[in-house]
Amino acid sequence: MVGYFLLIINVLLVLLNTAVCSLFICLCALFKALIPIAFSQDYATRAANYFMWVWATVNLGILTLSNRVKWDIRGGETLQRQGWYLMISNHISWTDIVVLCCVFKNKIPMPKFFLKQQLLYVPFVGMGCWALDMPFMRRYSREYLLRHPEKRGQDLETTRRSCAKFKTHPTTVVNYVEGTRFTPEKRKKGKSPYQHLLSPKSGGIAYTLAAMGEQFDNVLDVTLAYPDNQENPFKDLLMGRMKRIVVNIRELPVDEQVTGDYFNDKPYKRQFQKWLGDVWREKDEFLADVYQDK
């Protein structure tokens, strides 16, 4: 009974926090649109990022009051708030977005997520993310692209436009390279060679590196795990049942392994896919150790 009471209270508080912060973020975007002067736009962008920081800080406070979470954060000691980072992470649930924002809000620029197109229409959330210049990606199935070849490459064009906006302010670009949340059913259906991960999709991250590679200080390889709450981590977090959150951070160099012409240089494409596969294999081995030691 207590858990469901906390669920209702936490949902209401998080929704209120999201609505208020989204309103201020959208006012910043309106200000930026109405006064197209470099100084005012710079100020509006900084203000919008500040309200995203407020959103993450308040969420952390709300969830800390109702959960006795043991935070197991490994790495990330040398990160800079004025840097540029490309973050790649496994994706388990909605909890991931909250956790990443809470963990990194004082370490690096506030994360900008690549989001599914459907989230644009979620009240408050979609409006706020749009105002923060987060890219909304429309995923097409292979069968759909065969019927509509003109749609091929649109996600890459969206990536290019978004990266152009990120070049003027220190930014953390987050890409869930699995493309969707992990479930055992999706793993089996996709014939993933990994035990705790889906196969990574390399195109989006490769295009981001091609567009901004010279600006990124590092690629941040982040591994998330909720070893005692694997079934429903987001619901458990809202009900005060979250016990332990594991966040492993590795800083990978932006070198010749990750910079090249992915779409026209086939040897480089194979090299990049191997690099990403090796990162994912190490991530899977780390998760196996975490879940074994829970």
Task: Give structural notes.
The protein is of the alpha/beta class and 294 residues long. The two termini are 26 Å apart. Strand 4 (115-116), helix 4 (125-131) and strand 5 (136-137) form a beta-alpha-beta unit. The radius of gyration is 19 Å and the shape is globular. A 6-stranded mixed beta sheet has the order 1-8-7-2-6-3, with helices on both faces. The chain has a two-stranded parallel sheet with strand order 4-5. Helix content is 50%, strand content 13%. It has 10 helices and 8 strands.
Please mark out the parts with pLDDT under 50 across 5 or more consecutive residues, or reply none.
none
Number of beta strands: 8
Q: How big a fraction of the residues is strand? A: 5-15%
The biggest sheet amounts to: 6 strands, mixed
Q: What is the string of helix and strand elements? A: HHEEHEEHEHHEHHEHEH
